[in-house]
Amino acid sequence: MKKLSFCLLAIILLSGCGSQSNLPQITIDNQGQDYTFAIDQQFQILLPSNQTTGYKWEVSDLTSSSIEEVKNEYKLSKKYEGSDVVGAGGEEIWTFKVVSIERSRIRMQYVKSWDKSKVANSFNISINGNPDDGLITLTGKIKSLPAGDKYDDYFESNDGQKFGIAPYTQDNIGDPGIRLKIKESKDSGKDVEIRGRFVDGVVDYEGKLFAIHEFITSTPTS
Length: 222
What we know:
The model is unreliable at 6-18 (pLDDT under 50). Helices cover 9% and strands 46% of the residues. By secondary structure, it is mainly beta. Strand 10 and strand 11 (153-157) form a beta hairpin. The two termini are 22 Å apart. It has a five-stranded mixed sheet. The protein has a five-stranded mixed beta barrel with strand order 10-11-12-16-15. The chain is globular, with a radius of gyration of 19 Å. The protein has two domains: 3-127, Immunoglobulin-like; 136-220, CATH 2.40.50.140.
């Protein structure tokens, strides 16, 4: 998972990313990434939207103790501004503020207000998610392998990585709580957030094994 600082975001802004703003801006292309922001820093999430379809973005999960939603607005794409084009698309601009420094997450779903069971799209990022403890945070899905395969299951992250997973082991005992969460989340269609490290010298699916120290289950994305 990539980790972007405010300095890098400033470069993105200068190159002309989305809506005009002095705030750091995060787009749909930044799905699954982690960002480092200071207290009181505001930032924006810009997501493609077409409200004539009945769909709009909603926050499905937010670490409210550290992230505050400031406002959200909808804007037509520039090429449609001032026109009466039916069905014209645009983007939703969500502004958030960091109120305390802790590992945080924002998860959003593109749904109809009267039928939230059908999720047309989803988006998630973490804020201040990788403190200096040597662990990394990744978001994605746990999937099973065919019967008779050498390995039990694997993790496919939202940034395209694939690797084997196992609970963190201490005194040759794997954490039973994490083992249960792996079992419950396998092939569920849910995004999960795992935190841990790759294990040196141990080969698993796609040649890599990730030891999970912390595990967070999120909402279904399909």
